[in-house]
Amino acid sequence: MTRMISRRRFVRISAAAAGLGLLPAGLPANAGAAPVVWRGTMLGAIATMEIHHENRSEAQQLISVACAEARRLEQLFSLYLEDSALVELNRTGILIDPAAEMVDLLAISQHYAELTGGLFDPTVQPLWNLYADHFSQANADPTGPAPSAIKAALARVGYARLSVDRNRIVMPRGMAVTLNGIAQGYITDKMVDLLRSHGVTHSLVDMGETRAIGSRPDGRPWEIGIADPDIVGRTETILPVEDRAVATSGAYGFRFDPEGRFNHLFDPRTGGCADRYRSVTTVSRNATTADALTKPFSLMPDDQIRSLLPHVDIERVHLVDAEGKPSDIAA
Questions:
Q1: Which of 97, 285, 306, 328 is paired with 299 by a 20 to 30 Å CA distance?
Q2: Alpha-carbon Rg for the chain in angstroms
Q3: Domain count, the chain
Q4: Which residues pair with 6 in a beta bridge?
Q5: Alpha helix locations (H) across 24-94?
């Protein structure tokens, strides 16, 4: 049966580390036709790896190595682990001698912030905190936080005030960084690099965003199902991919209020929430780019998206507009 993923993104309050859970179990080591699959969570999202390898024991060992590396990176980037490097940065405003991957990912984040005119901004966490605190209150005002509170939160947002180099990362106290809009893609790319370095030529990796290594073993493309933003469990469209990454963002991923007026896709210009599209899907050669650009694209009219494509590594953008009408933009 053709492999298809149809996944509704979600945020968990606590991202507990999952065990390996290799499936299917009990097959002999030489059962080369059967994939080895790991399922768990990564940065609060469902995560999977499917490896096709002629030696099942080697595939299982490789997944163990990949999971250990993914957990190491999660320990840097997670907002849900109290002892992560990111939580330390947000608590103190400084990281001395930061890990190379933290420097790399923040530098990439600043690049996309510049490229999108600040619509991608890793320092929007104060807005998340504001909306979460507001809607966690009993009898919260359904119209959202007060304009004065939004203004105060916006005063603590601004990627240009984040100083990043290999010796230290510094930002003014009161600011806070989130990497939830890019770290899943970055970790996915790192897992792909690791698997490829060990000779894997057919695999599907999803550490919160999806990337294919090669094609399916039978030569057909992988098929990635894009979730219907309105109906849980239904697939809106299917994208065939080979050696490509796919990422999706939509307001349905996390809503603060029952009516769904306020979501996790913040506009750093206004402090409001995205409502132009029901979902935005990107296809790229790497998951970091695909992941990062779904967020600013969620705030852009389609002509602005189209004008930006020659400057970024995005091959296709699949949009579902506010009325539910799908459309595609190709580079």
A1: 285
A2: 20
A3: 1
A4: 225
A5: 56-77, 85-92
The span from the CA of 178 to the CA of 182, in Å, is 9
In a domain, residue 189? The reply is no
Tell whether 146 is covered by a domain: yes
What pLDDT is stored for residue 10 in this prediction? 25
Say which CATH number the domain at 147 has: 1.10.3980.10
Query: What residues make up the domain containing 111?
Result: 85-170
Residue labelled with tokens 């999660």: 74
Calpha distance 54→317 (Å, rounded):
35
111 found inside a domain: yes
Are 281 and 317 in contact by the 8 Å Cβ rule? The answer is: yes
261, amino acid identity:
R
In sequence order, the 6+-apart residues with CB closer than 8 A to the CB of 189 are 211, 245, 286, 287, 288
The answer to whether residue 128 sits within a structural domain is yes
pLDDT in tens, 57-109: 888 899 899 999 999 999 999 999 999 999 999 999 999 999 999 999 999 99
Residue-by-residue DSSP string for 251-306: GGG-BSSTT--SBS-B-TTTS-B--SEEEEEEEESSHHHHHHHHHHHTTS-HHHHH
Q: Mind listing the pLDDT tens digit for each residue in 154-164?
A: 999 999 999 99
